[in-house]
Structures are given as structure tokens and as C-alpha cells.
Design brief:
733 residues, alpha/beta, eight-stranded parallel sheet, six-stranded mixed sheet, 20 helices, binds 1-deoxynojirimycin
């Protein structure tokens, strides 16, 4: 439809029709196969609203969605099609590793390919928009939703945000979908890591670290933005005019559709910034929130607010027009089914190519944390005992893969058997947790995991097969519901009964490799000394176990590197690599002994830093060479470093470049990632990796809150992770 016609359409709409267009409800009202993803409440709305709302989410299936669209349009006076959205975050049926895992690939191109794959599956089933990417910066692993994030670094998160949006949206043909970046803003920083809790930080920190990944998604053209549940400077995002209008629309020029998170407009009342539903509706529409997700607050109150002159109808008109524009950009007025196609759906979903993409990303996401005495890779001719609650488990996709076809997932046992047949023995060992009641109800996925078994017998069997094996592989981890939304934990170590199993196995004095399946950095002190090898598999996706087996047996050389630090203990949290400099650093402050910034009972450093990950080969770094050590706005510095694979097999390495601003008008971090390159080298091969440093790399929010650079001296670091680096100095004039 021509843009001019949209205005005509808007003018034809009654006030009720406009208001209902701003409502987005869950698919349970329209279809039995809808997935529930939040608290269930009685909605209290009538059929007139249901027949006229703008959007529905979390219903699937081309045939089903066509039928819903037909029914809806058969009752629609103005023939404005429904917009179908869905929580397809990192996979529809073919599921990628969780974002905290795929980030460890340091391979944005492959991530983009992954999102293109997801868009193909999702659009064929008839969905128009996905509530993804989730780009919240995270530094507190107690928060369950770290699994959905790409980690603790603003620069890297922004690169992934762009790649994901581009993958989902492509050139916006029918095989792509509209992308909704979330959760705007700073949802990843709840106090004490407790989900839905207060977020409170300086504007400088917000802008410097937390906002950049959303901005990167907006700059990449994402069509929708979802509000967050939390406060930003005391005002919840869904009623925060400064955030939603001044920053998002006026500063960043976002012209797309905003959507509240699940019932977040209603929650303005519980936050205590709105007296009642009427007031909540007013705050949200004034803030520029277009869709009210999950509640009837807009439906029941916006009309009255206009009629009583409490708000200007223009606010409603502009919100409706943005939604009509999105529907028009998607081509829904010409083809309300859009990509929905039963034949294509069958062909494309779970096809070989899609599986291959997911598997490649799983391979690059897995992080080798420890490999003493070269226990890995495993020898295919030796006897391996595979033990543990994740050894034969199919729940490998994490919490936000609500449509995954779990039955068809290959568990680790089968993947390893494919390689070594009878040389593999298996025992369950123990359950993932001992108290399932702690997990609460999460609608769609409650019944998907194995249930309690006979623990004593499990242990006996495990010890029996372990006694007969050359090497023990123990597959441990978190229950899916222990991380993800509302999955905050104060104790983030491996569960007690799994540690007890490991202790018993350790007593056998055999080499042990532990594979972890989890959604967050864990505290590993109960595990680390009892194992020779440690592989962080995360929730590795629908093809993940195959990738894990490839890595265990050395068919793939691991290359993943952490994008979130693994704390030594809970007391250190938040611990992240790019912390500010303090006046009393441990080294170099002139102070000694007690009066420096440290703990008296723990190191400051995390167990594993940002950027860390081992390989089966070894890379040797030369010294940094600079083509000049002073530069200005008109030129740049070329930094080069030689890297040699000194091991005896081919391997991939992510070379990381960090900068420290030595003196700034405000305190600056000890280092910040400003570039990286993933290379692959044959055994004995060497190469020169180059980075170009420009003025742009030095920009930050200065004392006057300008995003600019300041002349001065800088430290440059290049290395294999954020801690083990080579250093050089340069100056910007
Ligand atoms: C709440 C979550 O915060 C959000 O990420 C999700 O998209 C919505 N529920 C819809 O299920």
C-alpha cells in the first residue's frame, strides 16, 4: 500500500478501532497450541476487543496462522491484518546454542547466518516478527537471563546486535522477519541479580555501557523495540518518556514500533508510579509505548483518556500509524499470510542446511576451560564411561527455545556412541537437582525433563562402569529452569548431588573430563580440582551434543572464548574485565598491605576472565609492532602482531585488541575491547594480524557527556584473552 493510503486508512478508523490496534495478546485466545510464557491472569476483555486487536504472539504453524488470520479478517471492518509475533529468540525448531554460548564463537558472520536460518523457519510458519535479539549487557551471573545475552562487553554486544538484526531482517522479503530488540533498557543490571528488581545507575554508565547494543540494533534498522520491566533512573521503562521518546526516538531517530514487555504497563501500578490502570495507560502512551502486550489496559482506558481530554488523540494516531506502517512494510495488506506456507514449512524446518548451521555455531561456542595432562581429546580406542544427568538428556536448548522439537534431539550418549560404539558405557549417576519444587511453573515447558530416579542404584551403576573404564566423562549442569527468565540464583555452583557423584568418581583415581550444560557462568570450586578436563558446552542447541562429541574426540578443535567472566565465588559478583580504575589498585598505587582495593579472603580476579578459552593446540604471540606511535584525527595507527601455531594440529584463535585511556576527564576502564580477529592456522603456520586504530576507537562519554575522544596517551593490549596480553603505548594528539 502507498504510504499516503495509510493515512487515509488511519482517518477512517474509529477511536475504538485505533485503540484496539495497540493491543497485543497471547495466542491462547485464538488457538489451542499457543505457548504461555508468563504469569497467567484473567484478561477481562470482550469479543469486540479480541476481534480488533493489532497483534497476537506465540502461536505457530502455517495452516493454523492462516486460519486465525482468515477468521480475524472475516470480522474486520477495515481489513487490517493481524501481526503475528513470537518468542523465537535463538531458534524455532532448529535451535542454535543459547546466546551466551554463541557469543563465545566470536563469529558474528556465523551468528548472522544462524539468524537468517531462524528467519526462514519462522517466516514459513507464518510469523511476521520475532522478540529477538535480546542484547542486555550482563555482569551478574546470579541473574538467570544472562543465558539470553551475548555477555559483559558493550562493544562485542553491539557487534552481535547488528549481526542478529541483519540476519533476521535481511532485505525484508518474505523469508525474513521483523526483529524486536529487547529489553530497553538496562534490564541486565538488576540489583543483586534478582529478576525484575530495581536497576539504578548513573546516566554515564547507562550510556557508556548499557545503551550501546540497543543503539546498534536500531542503527541496523530493527523494526521494533521492547521495553524492559525495570526502572531507569527511578521510572519504569514502560512509562519513561525520557528513555522511550527523548533517547530512542529523538536522539536515535527510531521510527519503528515499540512494545511493552509482558504486562509491563500494568506493572507501573505495582511499581507505584501509576495510581490505577487509567494512569498506567496515560504514562505508557505518553512515553511512546505503542503496543500493550498481554493486558487490556490500553483497550479499556485510552478512549476515556482522549474523551476526557487527558491525552491528545495525536498520541494514539502516531502509535497506530507506526503499527500500520510496519504491517505495510511487511506487505500484509497485499498478502496477510505473508511467508506462511505449509509446503515450505515442511521443507525448510529442520532441513539439513539448517542443522549444519546450528551445528557449526555449536562447535564454535563450546569453550575448553581446562585440559591438564592433555586428557583431551579422548582416544577413540580407549574405554570411556559416560556418566551424569546430562549424559542421555535431550533438554539441551535452554529456556527460551519454546518451540524446539525436543524429541528429535540427539543426546550426548548417542553422539558419542556414533563415534566409538561399544567402547562407550553409560550410567545416569544422579538427577540434576534434588528438589524440583524450587523451579516453579514456567507454563510451556514444565514436563520436558527427566524425573527423579533411584539415586542409590544410579550411583552404584555409575561406579561400576567407571571402575571398568580408562577415562570418565561426566556430564553435569543446571536444570533448564534454573536459568532463564525468573531463574535467579544465589548459589550458582553445581548442585550438591552432582558434586557428590563427582567426588565418588574422583576417588577412583582415573582421568575425568567434565562437560557442563548450563545457562550461566558457574562457581566451579567444587568441580575444578576433581577433573582433568573441563568443557563448557552451555545449552548447546538442537545439534549441540554432536558438536560436543566432535570436540571431546578431537574431530573439532575447540575455539570458543568466554564473553562473560566466571567468578571465583559469589562474593566477587559483579566481576568483569572492563572495570574502572580505582584510586587504590592492588598494584601500583603506592599503598601497601591492607589499604588497597581487594578482598581479604579472595582474589579480585575471576576464575576465568573475559575472552578466555583453550585449544588443543597452542598459539604463541610475538610483540606488538606499531607503524607509528603518535597519530591524529587525519590518520591512524597500524598495530601488528605475529602469531604462530606452535602445536601439532590446526586450530582457530580469536586475537583480541584492547585499549586503555591512561588519563581522561572521567575515570576510564582498565581496558576495553576495541577489535578482534578470528584466524585459523595449520600446525607450525604463523601469520601477522593487523588492527587499525582510529580516533573513533578512543571515544567515550566525556565529562560534558559528549561522545568524543580526548587527546593523550593510551595503552594498547593484544592477546589471547583479556588478561594474557602484550602491551604497547601510543599517543593521540
Ligand atoms: C517476557 C520476557 O521478558 C520477554 O523477553 C518475552 O519476549 C515476553 N515475555 C513474551 O513472552
Amino acid at each position: 500500500m502507498e504510504k499516503g493510503k495509510l493515512l487515509e486508512l488511519l482517518n477512517e478508523m474509529t477511536l475504538e478501532e485505533k485503540v484496539y490496534q495497540l493491543v497485543q495478546l497471547d495466542g491462547g485466545l485464538y488457538s489451542e497450541n499457543a505457548a504461555v510464557t508468563g504469569p497467567k491472569v484473567k484478561l477481562g476483555i470482550n469479543d469486540e476487543v479480541i476481534n480488533n486487536i493489532g497483534s497476537v504472539y506465540n502461536v505457530f504453524g502455517a495452516e493454523n496462522l492462516k486460519k486465525i488470520q482468515d477468521d480475524y479478517l472475516s470480522k474486520s471492518r477495515l481489513q487490517i491484518p493481524l501481526l503475528f509475533c513470537a518468542d523465537v529468540i535463538y531458534g524455532y525448531k532448529t535451535v542454535l546454542p543459547i546466546p551466551l554460548a554463541f557469543a563465545c564463537s566470536w563469529n558474528p558472520e556465523l551468528v548472522k547466518e544462524g539468524m537468517e536460518m531462524i528467519a526462514k523457519e519462522t517466516s514459513a510458519t507464518g510469523i511476521h516478527g520475532v522478540f529477538s535479539p535480546m542484547v542486555d549487557l550482563v555482569r551478574d551471573p546470579r541473574w538467570g537471563r544472562v543465558m539470553e545475552s551475548t555477555g559483559e562487553d558493550a562493544y562485542l554486544n553491539s557487534i552481535y546486535a547488528k549481526a542478529e538484526v541483519e540476519g533476521f531482517q535481511g532485505d525484508f522479503n518474505n523469508e525474513h522477519v521483523a526483529s524486536c530488540v529487547k529489553h530497553f533498557a538496562a534490564y541486565g543490571a538488576p540489583e543483586a541479580g534478582r529478576d525484575y528488581n530495581t536497576v539504578d545507575m548513573s546516566e554515564r554508565k547507562l550510556r557508556q555501557d548499557y545503551l550501546s547494543s540497543y543503539k546498534a540494533a536500531v542503527d541496523a534498522g530493527c523494526k521494533m523495540v521492547m521495553t524492559s520491566f525495570n526502572t531507569v533512573d527511578g521510572i519504569p521503562a514502560s512509562g519513561n518518556k525520557w528513555l522511550m521518546r527523548e533517547v530512542l526516538r529523538e536522539e536515535w531517530g527510531f521510527e519503528g514500533v515499540t512494545v511493552s514487555d509482558y504486562a509491563a504497563i500494568k506493572e507501573l501500578i505495582y511499581h507505584g508510579v501509576a495510581e490505577d490502570e487509567n494512569h498506567a495507560a496515560k504514562l505508557a502512551i505518553e512515553a511512546g509505548v505503542d503496543f500493550d502486550m498481554k493486558t487490556p489496559i490500553y483497550a479499556n482506558h485510552l478512549k476515556g483518556l482522549v474523551e476526557r481530554n487527558e491525552i491528545n488523540v495525536k498520541l494514539i494516531d502516531e502509535a497506530v500509524l507506526r503499527i500500520l506502517n510496519l504491517k505495510n512494510d511487511l506487505g500484509l495488506f497485499e498478502n496477510p499470510y505473508r511467508g506462511a506456507n505449509e509446503i515450505l514449512e515442511k521443507e525448510v524446518i529442520g532441513c539439513k542446511g539448517n542443522k549444519k548451521t546450528a551445528r557449526s555455531l555449536s562447535e564454535e561456542s563450546i569453550v575448553l576451560l581446562k585440559n591438564d595432562n592433555k586428557v583431551l581429546p579422548l582416544d577413540k580406542n580407549k574405554k570411556i564411561a559416560l556418566i551424569g544427568p546430562y549424559a542421555n538428556e535431550k533438554a539441551l536448548v535452554g529456556l527460551w527455545a519454546i518451540s524446539a522439537d525436543q524429541k528429535s534431539i540427539i543426546p550426548l550418549k548417542e553422539a558419542m556412541e556414533n563415534k566409538i560404539g561399544d567402547n562407550l558405557s553409560y550410567a545416569h549417576g544422579c538427577d540434576i537437582i534434588d528438589d524440583y519444587s524450587l523451579l516453579g511453573d514456567f507454563g510451556y515447558m514444565m514436563q520436558k525433563m527427566s524425573v527423579k530416579r533411584d539415586c542409590e542404584k544410579d550411583l552404584e551403576e555409575a561406579l561400576e562402569i567407571a571402575a571398568d573404564a580408562d577415562t570418565i566423562v561426566v556430564a553435569l549442569g543446571e536444570h533448564t529452569l534454573q536459568s532463564g527468565e525468573a531463574g535467579s540464583r544465589t548459589d550458582i555452583s553445581v548442585n550438591k548431588q552432582q558434586v557428590e557423584l563427582l567426588e565418588k568418581l574422583h576417588e577412583l583415581n582415573k582421568p575425568i573430563v567434565c562437560v557442563l550444560f548450563n545457562g550461566r557462568p558457574l562457581i566451579l570450586d567444587n568441580v575444578i580440582d576433581k577433573v582433568d578436563g573441563l568443557v563448557e558446552a552451555w545449552f548447546p542447541g538442537s545439534e549441540g551434543a554432536l558438536a560436543v562429541a566432535d570436540i571431546l574426540f578431537g574431530d573439532i578443535n575447540p575455539s570458543g572464548k568466554l564473553t562473560m567472566s566466571f567468578p571465583m565465588n559469589v562474593g566477587q559478583i559483579p566481576v568483569y574485565y572492563n572495570e574502572f580504575k580505582t584510586g587504590r589498585p592492588i598494584l601500583g598505587s603506592g599503598h601497601t598491605g591492607r589499604f588497597v582495593s581487594k578482598y581479604i579472603d579472595s582474589p579480585n580476579e575471576p576464575r576465568y576472565p573475559f575472552g578466555y578459552g583453550l585449544s588443543y593446540t597452542k598459539f604463541e604471540y610475538g610483540d606488538i609492532q606499531l607503524d607509528k606511535d603518535i597519530f591524529n584525527i587525519n590518520n591512524s595507527i597500524k598495530a601488528s602482531i605475529s602469531i604462530k601455531n606452535v602445536g601439532d594440529i590446526k586450530g582457530k584463535e580469536t586475537v583480541q585488541m584492547y585499549i586503555q585511556d591512561i588519563v581522561g576527564s572521567v575515570v576510564r576502564p582498565v581496558k576495553e575491547l576495541r577489535g578482534f580477529k578470528k584466524i585459523e592456522l595449520e600446525a607450525n603456520e604463523s601469520t601477522i594480524v593487523e588492527f587499525i586504530i582510529t580516533e573513533e576507537d578512543l571515544r567515550f562519554f566525556t565529562k560534558d557527556m559528549n561522545f568524543s575522544s580526548e587527546p593523550g596517551k593510551f595503552k594498547l593490549f593484544i592477546g589471547t584473552n583479556s588478561k594474557d596480553v602484550k602491551a604497547a603505548l601510543f599517543e593521540y594528539r
